[in-house]
Amino acid sequence: MLCDKMWEVTQQSVDGCKLIQGEVVSSAYDGDDDNKSFVGAKLADGTIIKGDALLYSCGPWTKFGTMMGVKYHSAIIPTPDVLTQSVFFAGCGDPEVYPRPDKTAYCTGFPDEAVKVTEKPGEVEVRKDRIQKIVDSVRKASSKKSDDDYGGALSADPILEQACYLPTTLDGLPLMGKLSSSSIHGGGGPCYVAAGHGCWGILMGP
Questions:
Q1: pTM score of the predicted model
Q2: Which residues, at least 6 apart from 66, have a Cβ–Cβ distance to it below 8 Å?
Q3: First-to-last CA distance in the chain?
Q4: Where are the alpha helices (DSSP H) in 45-153?
Q5: CA within 20 to 30 Å of 115's CA: 39, 137, 146, 167, which one?
Q6: 102: number of CA atoms within 13 Å, CB side?
């Protein structure tokens, strides 16, 4: 929801803004090796996207530095009403519950260890046992009952089950700054990286 809203606002405030989906393979230049100028990004299909600078911000799939990923599973659970507060439980598996304005709650917890991510974007495996752990945990934490018939605000079955990777680094510090010429395929230029912010990407962003 946040990304959709940010994109909506961007389209309203930046004239000519549009979304182009593709794989960036290198920065793009005009001229020869001795006298070349940066012009933008080159996509896998050969298309050149013109720009003044190139920012690599691909989350756990950012290839620069010591980028890692922490796999989190999550479930979207319908709620009887719009819940008003995010909740972080101590115990019951330490689940996290984030209310949404459409009478659902984003529920997560039980993260994996940080790894070098090999799963491709959009093809991340969702493990049913981990989803069930999250569902059981939030049901128990949100209920006043002690038996299996919880009947609490988070007792409904999930309408969406998913998994993603939280981008992080070996030292826990975000990777931000200008890239050296040697690290960029095609040469130097105004190329930057911003990734590895963990769960605080919005607060720690430039």
A1: 0.81
A2: 169, 170, 171
A3: 21
A4: 128-142
A5: 137
A6: 5
